[in-house]
Amino acid sequence: MKPIVVKDQVRLGPARCLQLALSGMGYRMFRSMVTVSILALAVAFLVHVLCFGLLEQRITVRAWHDLGPLREAGAWVARLTQPDDDAAIFHALVQDRPQRQAEYARFAGADAATMAQGRQDARLLRDFEQYLGNLSDRDRVVLTAGLEALPLLRSMRDAQVYTQFTGRLQSLKLPSPLGSLQKLETLVHQALPRLDALAGRIKAGQARAIAQVHQDFPGQTPLALLAAPPANLEAQLAQAGYAVDPGALKRLAPLAQAELDKMALARMIQSREVRDLLARQLGTPVALVNQAGVLQWLDRASRAQWLVQMVQDKTGEHPLPPDRLLSIAQTFRRQQSLQAAVGDQTFEDGEDAGMPTGTLWLIALSFLVCVVGVANAMLMSVTERFAEIATMKCLGAMDGFVMMMFLFEAMLQGLFGGLAGIVLGLVLALLRAFAEYGLLTLSVMNGFGWLLLAAGGSLVAGVLLAALAAVWPAYVAARLAPMEAMRVE
Amino acid sequence: MKLTQLDAKPTPTNPADKPVIIRTLGLIKSYGRGDATTYALRGVDAAIFRGEFIAVLGPSGSGKSTFFNMIGALDSPSQGRILIDEVDVAQLSAVELAFLRCRKIGYIFQSYNLIRYMTALENVTVPMAFAGVAPEEARRRGLDLLDLVGLKERWFHRPIEMSGGQQQRVAIARSMCNQPRILLCDEPTANLDLKTGAEVLNILVRINKERKVTIVCATHDHRLLNICDRIMWIRDGKVERVEERANVKVTIGRIGGEA
Ligand SMILES: Nc1ncnc2c1ncn2[C@@H]1O[C@H](COP(=O)(O)OP(=O)(O)OP(=O)(O)O)[C@@H](O)[C@H]1O
Ligand SMILES: [Mg+2]
Predict the structure, then answer these.
(1) Of A128, A181, B197, B247, which is the most exposed, with the fewest CB atoms less than 10 Å away?
(2) For position A332, what pLDDT does the model report?
(3) Contact A226, A73 (CB under 8 A)
(4) What spatial distance separates the first Cα and last Cα of chain B, rounded to whole Å?
(5) Please, are residues B178 and B103 in contact by the beta-carbon 8 Å criterion?
(6) A456 versus A488: which is more confidently predicted?
(7) What is the number of helices (H) and of strands (E) in chain A?
(8) CB of A131 within 8 Å of any CB in chain B?
(9) Is A265 in contact with A320 (CB distance < 8 Å)?
(10) CB contact, 8 Å: A12 with chain B?
(11) B63: CA distance to ligand 1 center in Å?
């Protein structure tokens, strides 16, 4: 009889491995489907959070942008009513807006060097504000004794207060603001007085300009002026020293008119009788009947007609026509939804807004959830097959084959799960965005590229994770002696 | 497959001139460490001859399965050596081990160890796939083997659709598919009724006689005493004694030296 000769086992090619893995998956269709659905859920969660975050960010920026004219109109009314306050001036000085700064220079009668100095001083002030902003809440309260940056710095001109401040700085073991105490001293004793002087000159100039405009157009409120701008308004404003965007006045007129209309509406619903009737109609207590509530409620022609008729009957006045009412109500609701989307965030013009920290945390967390979910699903589906791996090894399978089989299987499952997850996650994110922001969502849907990019990234992450999470335990099992693997629970 | 075959004549053996195919030297296997160490094998020196049918008997927990795993190169010993045709198993590389398990040794497990989701035929062809046999050729040989164990008609059944005896027969077919030189069986009849157990034993005898395959069979089944060539008694992880079958008195109720 021949002796036993031991040689090298043949290695199976990838094609044969793939074939065996595929037939195996076919037989375990149901179990595979369970794994695939878990993968899909994990990926869907990630895609949903990621895409919703992206959508939300874009919607917010878009809404901020769309509200621009309204802010501009408000700014004009404010500029024509009273001079800016110090904080606003200092803030505007650091911003990169040449027109505005030229206007300040005119109002203050300051030369370029003074303005440049002012900008530099304002930057120092901004740096100090940022330093305070980066402190922990507790440290900040202790350090500033609850004061804002400006009053704090002003009070520090007093040598005693200054020493107290530096003392607290030391006892809190904080780094000195602006890099060195010397700079802080410069800010307190030189930059801030300079800034205050400059702001004083600017405010005086603004007051003169406001008086000038009043004189040119006597008896007109700023809002009325903006709502129906006389032909010479632009020229007169420029002459008074204001920087006027060409075309801005025409653009802002309807907005100002809408504000006037809203004030008219507020007058319409002032009388007790009208408010009583409205309260019954709106189903709210009389005390809560206000302009905003009425504008929300005014969403169809019949209501507007009813309101106008009722006001006429009760007060004998001639209120706004119903179609005007309807149109301001519509504008108001749109502005409300934009305002809701923006919340209390502000963005610098022209700057691409990053995601809020909360959203970033949520994305990180959902990535973690995805990792854990995928890893768990794959680990489970591999560990429950340790006995199968052991049997295969008893029958002459090599480690490479076992791992390749699991790799193929995991990648296929990851692919299917990932694709399903993407679709699910995208649909969820879109639905949520629609529920929260309504049609605003549509306005940011031009070009799906970024959404698909996020989804594709999640898919790749899912497939790689699944492969990794399956191959690692398969490797561990394959490395064991067959009977040891068989014993693992 | 007639039951009368159970009374096959023992092949006369003489240890001195029979070539040894499996030899163990001071085989020790322990589980756990420290105080919790349990010894499954405590120094087994055994020699199994080429072409013989040897039964390994012993009470439950005596270390039969452990011995089976060791000589099948399915688990590594704590101490001692295993030589298969004078080649030390411990010196084989992973690739050579796979070759050995795939083509030189066939395994029949107590719990069948069929792959759940594969049909009978696929279970039989898996080791052939590992050996690089082309799929059509593997299919043809698989059907022949299923025919040998009387399951040709049921080639498309999954393990759960088959009885224990049928599964065991599939496992036998699978163990034979790459024409192994050694067949290791761990209680091949433990889960079977008398009749199917006898069928399985018949197949084993035929394989041993017709194909000259060395068979090592751990068992509690006393019918094996009628068909094997030698009997190895194991107790507490040690070889108690090895007997020629001709020297063993088989009596009902009290068998061999086991009380
Ligand atoms: N993984 C393990 N960990 C610890 N002890 C083990 C392990 N496997 C087996 N043993 C011990 O080794 C001894 C021998 O076990 P083995 O399975 O070889 O017995 P056996 O002779 O096959 O018994 P049976 O006839 O019941 O199958 C037993 O005492 C058992 O408790
Ligand atoms: Mg056992």
Answers:
(1) B247
(2) 84
(3) yes
(4) 32
(5) yes
(6) A456
(7) 24, 0
(8) no
(9) yes
(10) yes
(11) 6
CA distances from A125 to A104, A155, A158 (A): 18, 14, 18
Pairing of strands B238-244, B20-31: unpaired
Pinpoint the alpha helices (H) of A220-356: 222-227, 233-240, 248-268, 272-282, 291-297, 301-315, 322-342
Give the full edge-to-edge strand order of the sheet including B105-108.
B105-108, B182-186, B214-219, B53-57, B230-235, B238-244
Torsion of CA B165, B166, B172, B173, to 10 degrees: 170
User: Which residues is B83 bridged to in the sheet?
Assistant: B23, B88
Question: For residue A484, which ligand has an atom nearest its CA?
Answer: 1
Buried-state track A112-136, b at ≥16 Cβ within 10 A, e below 16: eebbebbbebbebbbebbebbeebe
Question: Rounded to the nearest 5°, which phi and psi values hold at A481?
Answer: -65, 145
CA atoms in the 13 A half-sphere facing the CB of B160: 3
Nearest Cα to A289, choosing from A303, A272, A312?
A: A272
Q: Looking up tokens 């209501």, which residue turns up?
A: A303
pLDDT band at A349; cut points 50, 70, 90: low
CB B66 within 8 A of CB B29: yes
Contacts of residue A391 in chain B, CB cutoff 8 Å?
A: 113-115
- What residues does each domain of chain A span? 14-65+353-486, 80-252, 254-342
Q: Does the structure show a pLDDT above 50 at B51? A: yes
Confidence of residue A318 (pLDDT cuts 50, 70, 90): confident
Residues 6+ apart with CB under 8 A from A171: none
* ipTM summary value: 0.87
CA distance, residue B1 to nearest chain A CA (Å) = 27
Nearest CA in chain B to A3: B85
Tokens linked to A228: 């129906």
Amino acid at A106: R
pLDDT of A111: 85
Contact B114, B128 (CB under 8 A): no
CA distance linking residue B22 with residue B214, whole number of Å: 10
Instruction: Tell me whether strands B182-186 and B105-108 are parallel, antiparallel or unpaired.
Output: parallel
Q: What is the rounded average pLDDT for all residues in chain A? A: 84
From the list A260, A350, A436, A333, the residue with the least C-alpha distance to A68 is A350
Of A4, A16, A391, the CB nearest to B115: A391
Neighbours of ion ligand 2 (CB under 5 A): B 65
- Measured from the Cβ of residue A364, the count of other Cβ atoms closer than 10 Å reads 11
In angstroms, the CA A242 to CA A209 distance is 8
Q: Could you give the maximum distance between any two Cα atoms of chain A, in Å? A: 125
What single letter denotes the amino acid at residue A397? A
Q: Do the Cβ atoms of A391 and B113 come within 8 Å?
A: yes
Q: For residue B80, what are the contacts with CB-CB under 8 A and spacing of at least 6?
A: B24, B25, B26, B27, B28, B43, B44
* Confidence label for B257 from pLDDT (cuts 50, 70 and 90): very low
What is the distance between the alpha carbons of residues A12 and B35, in angstroms, rounded to a whole number?
Answer: 45
Asked if pLDDT for residue B14 goes beyond 60, the answer is: no
Q: Is the CB of B62 under 6 A from ligand 1?
A: yes
